[in-house]
Amino acid sequence: MEDYLEAIYILFQKQGYVRCVDVAEYLEVTKPSVSRAVKELTKAKYLRKDSNSILSLTSSGEQVAATIYERHRFFMERLIEAGVDPKTAEADACRMEHGISAEAFEKLKYSVERQGEKVK
Hints:
By secondary structure, this protein is mainly α. The chain has helices at residues 2-15, 20-27, 31-43, 59-81, 86-99, 102-119, and strands spanning 47-49, 55-57. The chain is built from six helices and two strands, in the order αααββααα. A two-stranded antiparallel sheet has the order 1-2. A hairpin with a 5-residue loop joins β1 and β2.
């Protein structure tokens, strides 16, 4: 479900609106898969779907999606900096963002930020 939240978050940033078909194309999944996810995310109060079938994140959905996206960007940037091919970095970052605890991520991020300050 986190992948769907993140996709909706990214797509909204890019185009200002999101439809189920946009999510399906972005994630390369079927429309029925998106429909099931939308039902679950709506039920969990992370997402709304209006009468025109436009999706929007609730405040709690946006908060979760922003957190996931921050993790994704953090890991992708570090992997690319380390010399990993961008396509591989993208795929690995996607796996890493879901498997790390909030505590570990915050400490890792803080550690990287501190190292950046020392370099400057």
